[in-house]
């Protein structure tokens, strides 16, 4: 059995923070330093922690603490002064500008566009699912591990069967999360029910983890009257208030600034919860990515921005998307603590999200996680990715780098899972899904009146008039309209 | 058979009465709560209003009236927030003066310079049940937020099957000509938003209207875009009651009775139209002037009733004529009142150019342009 370490979530956070200060995480950036400049980049644990210790020593309650934290930026400047001047021998070498003191240099050096080495990627399991020696990770109980693995299998099978259903013409559209099962399930497993999810659209596993049933998934895809969305949106646009999962919308990245607003509300209510908002590599090019991260940083809002860098935005690969070292390096540009993890390693994702959550909630700050992964499936049922990428690339990631198999190996090596359970689970889930689809298919669609409700809290006169007029038209030309919508 | 039908009809009437009673009760509850505690936590129905009661009133200008409304809003609801660029020190138009000092920097704060962020952030805040009052510094800069407004705010409730909503969101923006604003400090973009089911667009004409309408917008359970006529920020002075009051949304107001022609407008343009009405009166033309107030959902009933009376209608707005909201009103009136109309629907609007600087006087729908159109319509 590999040598693994039992570390609690609190100390994991501290541990990662410590490593960060030592330049392990996030400080691999090599800056062209000149002789005169002070190394202001040593460690991220600077003014914020100093402030926190100072503030925690005061006899204030949390609410007023927050008040003071809002003035942090000015305090930070002063603290930064003393921090910098301790390194700088000569006061004459520092300049005062809005935003704080900065030391100057007479050597004209541009910061390189990229560092010598890319930001390393945190992983716990190797490609075969064996624990890497001396790795730090958040231990997972047998119960949790089995649940995680089962849900990953659930997701895999759900994707396969719904995809097939679309191909058979039974639903109009579907998109899979193939290859991203570890991201979906492990990130969800590291959160609490109170944490609020703002998804992009490739994260149904988070809903699955929280207890959304296969029937509920099927109902949304069929747009029947049991669909919480009342048949208004395309398949896969799930939303569930009871699961704190905000309804998916197609526009990319719009959820990111909203996440900052929701997190700010949690902050104001003193809730021990955070927001987790997901985005793909492509989505980080949107203006809303910039808006969301900047707002979250300035408002000191407890959001985890989880970027699924799966290499492809439909047919656009990352080389055509950005020229930075992925997304993790962008965090620092906003003053946001960031980490890069192996998105196909369930334990690494779980550990990183646990630590991120702790920081977000306890320090009231945003965190950026970039999970490297691969989009095994096509973008959606409207896409054939063999048109723009090699089939053997897809096959390689599907088989050799499969996150589900990898985690299975680890779970099984602990003696927590067997081949027999595997077979049982797969056939059971498959059966449930087929049943759910059958039921969803037979369930009535929502009535016509639901087309006019919820545009506003109450339908205004123009909508009442339009409904009336439409009903008259329907009675005159019933053949123009689908017969499965109750009028 | 007849008996069954009779019983059934009685049942239907009873149900309707019950529904109406329930709505009235709800309104009463809200009205009751309104005094003192205000509307904390509860979502006011969009028709919940009260008359502008008699009480102490002060002569103040538009930005002060808006300032008062914001003070009231934050006072009566601890979950109300005001944010946007430069709102903390009082705002570039002083609409947010005193709020940060009084309610604290956690509730009244500056945001980074990013309209899509401001509105997105506001949607998130509102989705959690807060009243998010976002300021866009000039309506001319609202476009980066257009995606968030149209694709997100307007559809938030509908797409979620009413599981979620961002009804607590109000977006305020100064709009309209100011004499020297040019392309980017004078725009009237209301027509873009009137084409979006799911949001409301409200434009006040005066300080007293502004306070009551803004409070209604803030408390309305739907996302609202509230355009404030910047020309009137200092210029318009009116007696404004000092207490908390609301004016109804989606109710147009006949602000001048007449019998020969109906004029429809909103915001700052109404004062120009009123001058035209006064002059037309000297020529024996009796003009009825209607302030639409809410552009969507708009009060077709009031406008239609007026047109049925006068048989003529003229619409005026600063925004360019092509595709302006006047076109919607015109088309609707023609649909309902074609046979009653004595003359084509007239529109006196801005020209189809970007809002020019030195040519502003030529661009604007002036009193004389309106007067000429009134006469032409009456003499058709």
TrEMBL record, chain B:
SUPFAM superfamilies, alphabetized: Thiamin diphosphate-binding fold (THDP-binding), TK C-terminal domain-like
Catalysed reactions, as listed in the record: N(6)-[(R)-lipoyl]-L-lysyl-[protein] + 3-methyl-2-oxobutanoate + H(+) = N(6)-[(R)-S(8)-2-methylpropanoyldihydrolipoyl]-L-lysyl-[protein] + CO2
Main location: mitochondrion
InterPro entries: THDP-binding, Transketo_C/PFOR_II, Transketolase-like_Pyr-bd, Transketolase_C
GO CC terms: mitochondrial matrix
Compartment(s) where it occurs, according to its Swiss-Prot or TrEMBL record: Mitochondrion matrix
Superkingdom field: Eukaryota
Molecular function terms, GO-annotated: branched-chain 2-oxo acid dehydrogenase activity
CDD domains: TPP_PYR_E1-PDHc-beta_like (cd07036)
Pfam family, one: Transket_pyr
Transketolase-like pyrimidine-binding domain residues: 60-235
Biological process annotations from GO: branched-chain amino acid catabolic process; response to nutrient
UniProt-listed Enzyme Commission number(s): 1.2.4.4
Key words, A-Z: Mitochondrion, Oxidoreductase, Transit peptide
Cofactors: thiamine diphosphate
Record note on quaternary structure: Heterotetramer of alpha and beta chains.
Protein name: 3-methyl-2-oxobutanoate dehydrogenase (2-methylpropanoyl-transferring)
């Amino acid at each position: 059995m590999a040598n693994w370490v039992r570390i609690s979530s609190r100390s994991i956070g501290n541990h990662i923070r410590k490593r960060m200060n030592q330049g392990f995480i996030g400080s691999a950036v090599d800056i062209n330093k000149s002789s005169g400049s002070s190394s202001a980049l040593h460690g991220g644990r600077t003014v914020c922690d100093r402030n926190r210790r100072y503030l925690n020593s005061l006899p204030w309650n949390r609410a007023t603490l927050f008040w003071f934290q809002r003035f942090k930026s000015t305090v930070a400047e002063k603290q930064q002064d003393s921090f910098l001047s301790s390194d700088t021998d000569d006061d004459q070498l520092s300049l005062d500008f809005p935003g704080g003191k900065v030391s100057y240099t007479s050597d004209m050096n541009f910061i390189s566009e990229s560092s010598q080495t890319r930001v390393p990627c945190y992983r716990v399991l190797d490609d075969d699912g064996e624990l890497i020696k001396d790795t730090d990770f958040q231990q997972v109980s047998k119960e949790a591990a089995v649940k995680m693995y089962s849900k990953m299998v659930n997701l895999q099978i759900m994707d396969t069967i719904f995809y097939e259903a679309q191909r058979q013409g039974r639903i109009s559209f579907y998109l899979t999360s193939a290859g991203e099962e570890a991201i979906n399930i492990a990130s969800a497993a590291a959160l609490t029910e109170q944490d609020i999810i703002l998804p992009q659209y490739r994260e149904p596993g988070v809903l699955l983890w929280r207890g959304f049933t296969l029937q509920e998934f099927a109902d949304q895809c069929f747009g029947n009257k049991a669909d919480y969305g009342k048949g208004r949106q395309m398949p896969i646009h799930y939303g569930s208030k009871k699961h704190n999962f905000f309804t998916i919308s197609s526009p990319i990245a719009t959820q990111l600034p909203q996440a900052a607003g929701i997190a700010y509300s949690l902050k104001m209510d003193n809730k021990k919860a955070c927001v987790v908002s997901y985005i793909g590599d492509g989505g980080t090019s949107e203006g809303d990515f910039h808006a969301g991260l900047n707002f979250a940083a300035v408002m000191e809002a407890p959001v985890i921005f989880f970027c699924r860098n799966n290499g492809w935005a439909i047919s656009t690969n990352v080389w055509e998307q950005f020229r930075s070292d992925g997304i993790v390096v962008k965090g620092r540009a906003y003053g946001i603590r960031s980490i890069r993890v192996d998105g196909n390693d369930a334990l690494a994702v779980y550990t990183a999200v646990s630590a991120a959550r702790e920081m977000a909630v306890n320090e009231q700050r945003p965190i950026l996680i970039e999970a490297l992964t691969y989009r095994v499936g096509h973008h959606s049922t409207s896409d054939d990715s063999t048109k723009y990428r090699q089939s053997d690339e897809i096959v390689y990631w599907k088989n050799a780098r499969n996150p589900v198999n990898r985690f299975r190996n680890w779970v099984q090596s602990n003696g927590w899972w067997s081949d027999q359970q595997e077979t049982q689970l797969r056939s059971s889930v498959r059966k449930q899904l087929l049943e759910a689809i059958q039921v969803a298919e037979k369930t009535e669609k929502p009535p016509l009146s639901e087309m006019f409700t919820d545009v506003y809290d109450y339908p205004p006169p123009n909508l009442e008039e339009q409904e009336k007029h439409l009903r008259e038209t329907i009675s005159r030309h019933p053949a123009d309209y689908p017969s499965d919508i109750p009028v | 058979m007849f008996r069954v039908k009779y019983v059934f009809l009685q049942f239907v009437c009873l149900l309707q009465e019950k529904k109406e009673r329930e709505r009235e009760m709800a309104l009463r509850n809200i009205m009751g709560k309104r005094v003192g505690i205000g509307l904390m936590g509860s979502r006011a129905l969009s028709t919940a209003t009260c008359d502008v009661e008699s009480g102490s009133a002060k002569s103040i200008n538009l930005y002060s009236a808006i300032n008062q409304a914001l003070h009231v809003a934050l006072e009566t609801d601890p979950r109300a927030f005001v944010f946007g660029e430069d709102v903390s020190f009082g705002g570039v138009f002083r609409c947010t003066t005193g709020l940060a000092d009084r309610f604290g920097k956690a509730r009244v704060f500056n945001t980074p310079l990013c309209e899509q962020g401001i509105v997105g952030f506001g949607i998130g805040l509102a989705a959690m049940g807060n009243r998010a009052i976002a300021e866009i510094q000039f309506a001319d800069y609202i476009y980066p937020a257009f995606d968030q407004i149209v694709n997100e705010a307007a559809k938030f409730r509908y797409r979620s099957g009413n599981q979620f909503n961002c009804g607590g969101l109000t977006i305020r923006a100064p709009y309209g000509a100011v004499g020297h604003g040019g392309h980017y400090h004078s725009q009237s973009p209301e027509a873009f938003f009137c084409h979006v089911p799911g949001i409301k667009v409200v434009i006040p004409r005066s300080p007293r209207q502004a306070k009551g309408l803004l409070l209604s917008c803030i408390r309305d359970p739907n996302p609202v875009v509230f355009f404030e006529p910047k020309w009137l920020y200092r210029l318009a002075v009116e007696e404004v009651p000092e207490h908390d009051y609301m004016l109804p949304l989606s109710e147009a107001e006949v602000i001048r009775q007449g019998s020969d022609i109906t004029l429809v407008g909103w915001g700052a343009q109404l004062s120009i139209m009123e001058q035209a009405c006064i002059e037309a009166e000297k020529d024996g033309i009796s003009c009825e002037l209607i302030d639409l107030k809410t552009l969507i959902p708009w009060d077709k009933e009031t406008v239609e009733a007026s047109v049925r009376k006068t048989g003529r209608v003229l619409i005026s707005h600063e925004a360019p004529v092509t595709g302006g909201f006047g076109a919607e009103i015109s088309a609707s009136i023609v649909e309902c009142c074609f046979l009653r109309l004595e003359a084509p629907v007239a529109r006196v609007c801005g020209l189809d150019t970007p809002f020019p600087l030195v040519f502003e006087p030529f661009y604007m729908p002036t009193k004389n342009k309106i007067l000429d159109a009134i006469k032409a319509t009456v003499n058709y």
